[in-house]
Design brief:
- The protein has about 600 residues and is of the alpha+beta class.
- The N and C termini lie far apart (about 95 Å).
- A hairpin with a 2-residue loop joins strand 4 and strand 5.
- The chain is elongated and about 140 Å long.
- It contains 17 helices and 11 strands.
- A 5-stranded antiparallel sheet has the order 2-1-5-4-3, sandwiched between helices. Strands 6-7-8-9 form a 4-stranded antiparallel sheet, with helices on one face.
- The longest helix has about 45 residues.
- About 35% of the residues are buried.
């Protein structure tokens, strides 16, 4: 609701109530009869309280239900109203209206009883809205139907209280009043909000509900006294019926709320525990998607384990593999309130292994009494305060990946609820750990891809960035590695105005190692091409440089040619590379000089075959 609308509703209600008061003051001096002015007054009262209802409804909005806070506000206003009606009920005798006449008393008495009636009416609306919110909490389809039935009956009974129906028609008012009381009782059984309160909230609610119960009883008793009852009827009979029914509603509802909350106190601990479990599971679900660091994740897991089952200590173990004897190797990746030496002493002894029990059964292992169980009798000799213990397996795709342990200081500390909750928690932990590992692998793969992209860019820079231009030669070149980087290589070397050296090579293998050897070949070619007297001489020198640096399973195939445009000839040497194709006109032929790949041998056989 907008601020302007709220102001207009309050201003409209105040103006109408002021008009009603002025009419009442005028009636003290002048008789206005039972005609138009009386009708205008009654309508003004109806409309003013309707405006107040809309205002109170608007300021409440759609806020979540805060039971103790709402009850506290209602209690504070009820005490104020109680003090006000006590003052009005003890007013001077000459102020009190006689026989329900509107012109009895004086202007000051009229103001006092008008303020009392307005305060009671406003309080009745607040109480009705507060009870409505409580009734609607965790509602079902029939909840709203029952409450609306009460509202309808309340309004009709209030209107029936007006002196409009003659004779036997006056019996309708009491009948509707009785039906409204029955509906009050029906709606008062709707106390679902009590179950969802924490222990502290239940304690506050018990106090507030008991005080509201007593306050509403007081309001009922005082407003039914002859003095105040006559004053309310004199102000507006429908309003008096409205206030009375809502006061009865408050007595019954908050009386039942007090009893219900009191009986639900023993369940407060269970509810708080379930809330803690849900919160921990929710936080763990967030960890699955938000925590990428593995150490932070496992540390959070053990901390949440303490909260979920109220354990004294906890630790998380992950399986790293098996040794030569087939025994499972585990690593404690996180622990709380216990040392690694104590963990090893608890989990394994000379005869029995708790881990092995879990591995064989793949079920949670619960030791109710550590000192009397044959599997853990050795623990009582240790300086460890452990009365009960639980070990839950972490399984991913039917394969164990670890164990989650928790201990308590006293015996029989883990019940079936603890086992069920910790089992569910372990499933979430498994997902979180697997997700963390996948994220780590994904980040590692992405970093590797980025490094490979950098290597690819660097390798491309090793290839010629500019094709040489000669008047009598057309030169073109292209190279695309099958992977990010490779060992394919070509290069040009200007040996004079009419001579161009061209090298084409390939390193055995693929990937980064081939790219490194390719860079080494480039350096050798750039250095030797200027001093070698012929392509054969360059290959011989290159083999001597590479034979000791290459791995035994690596070699480099190379083809080196010198194009001499002045003599129109090509001098070629081949070291195990693909043959050169010579195309002339419509004919083509393979040029296959003999030769071994570079780096295969440094013996005379290379020189002979080259």
């Amino acid at each position: 609701m907008s601020r302007l609308k709220k102001i207009l509703l309050v201003a409209g209600a105040l103006l109408l109530l002021l008009g009603v008061y002025l009419i009442d003051v005028v009636r003290l001096a002048v008789s206005l009869g039972q005609g138009t002015w009386l009708t205008v007054r009654e309508v003004a009262v109806f409309v003013s309280f309707f405006f107040l209802f809309l205002y109170l409804q608007g300021i409440r909005g759609a806020k979540p239900l805060a039971v103790p806070k709402n009850l506290g506000k209602l209690l504070a206003y009820s005490l104020f109203v109680l003090v006000l009606i006590i003052i009005a009920a003890n007013a001077r005798p000459d102020w009190v209206p006689q026989g329900g006449a509107q012109d009895s008393g004086n202007a000051l008495a009229t103001l006092l009883f008008s303020l009392t009636a307005v305060a009671l009416g406003l309080f009745s609306i607040m109480a009705l809205l507060t009870i409505r919110d409580l009734v609607y909490y965790k509602r079902k389809k029939w909840t709203k139907r029952n409450f609306i039935a009460y509202i309808v009956c309340l309004l009709v009974a209030s209107v029936a209280a007006m002196p409009l129906l003659p004779g036997e028609g006056l019996l309708i008012g009491p009948l509707l009043f009785a039906v409204a009381v029955i509906l009050i009782v029906v709606n008062s059984f709707k106390q679902n909000w009590v179950v969802y309160l924490s222990r502290r909230e239940k304690m506050y609610s018990i106090v507030y509900a008991s005080l509201l119960f007593l306050t509403f009883i007081g309001i009922n008793l005082i407003t039914n006294q002859s003095v105040l009852e006559r004053a309310l009827i004199a102000y507006h009979p429908a309003l008096q019926s409205f206030i009375r029914l809502n006061a009865i509603f408050g007595v019954i509802y908050f009386g039942m709320a007090f009893v219900s909350t009191l009986f639900h106190m023993p369940t407060a601990e269970v509810y708080e525990r379930k809330q803690s479990e849900l919160t921990s599971l929710h936080n763990l679900s967030r960890l699955v998607t938000q925590v990428f660091d593995f150490s932070d994740l496992v540390d959070s897991v053990t901390g949440m384990t303490l909260e979920v089952v109220g354990a004294k200590s906890a630790w998380l173990e992950l399986i790293k593999g098996r040794n030569e004897q087939g025994e499972v190797l585990v690593e404690v990746v996180s622990l709380k309130n216990i040392t690694r030496q104590q963990i090893e002493s608890i989990a394994v002894n000379s005869n029995l292994s708790l881990r092995q029990f879990v591995i064989d059964s793949k079920r949670p292992l619960v030791i109710d009494d550590v000192s009397n169980d044959r599997r853990t009798k050795h623990i009582k000799k240790l300086d460890v305060a452990v009365g009960s213990l639980i070990c839950v397996p972490l399984a991913s795709h039917q394969e164990l990946i670890g164990f989650l342990h928790a201990t308590k200081e006293f015996q029989y500390g883990f019940d079936q609820d603890d086992i069920d909750v910790l089992t569910t928690f372990a499933d979430h932990v498994t997902i979180a750990i697997e997700n963390s590992k996948l994220i780590a692998k994904s980040l590692e793969r992405e970093r590797f891809q980025q490094e490979m992209m950098v290597a690819q860019q660097m390798q491309k820079r090793l290839l010629p960035q500019r094709i040489p231009s000669y008047p009598s030669l057309d030169v073109a070149a292209v190279s695309e590695p099958s992977l990010e980087v490779g060992g394919d290589y070509y290069d040009f070397m200007a040996l004079g105005p009419d001579r161009l050296g061209v090298v084409v090579g390939d390193v055995s293998g693929k990937g980064v190692s081939a790219a490194f050897y390719m860079a080494e070949v480039k350096g050798i070619f750039q250095a030797l091409s200027r001093v070698a007297v012929s392509p054969r001489d360059l290959l011989l020198r290159a083999n001597q440089a590479l034979v000791d640096s290459l791995e035994r399973n690596a070699f480099i195939s190379l083809l080196y040619a010198i194009f001499d445009s002045s003599k129109s000839c090509v001098t070629l040497a081949r070291a195990g590379h693909c043959p050169m194709i010579h195309i002339s006109g419509n004919s083509s032929s393979m040029v296959r000089p003999s030769g071994l790949g570079l780096g295969l041998t440094h013996e005379k056989i290379f020189e002979v075959t080259c």
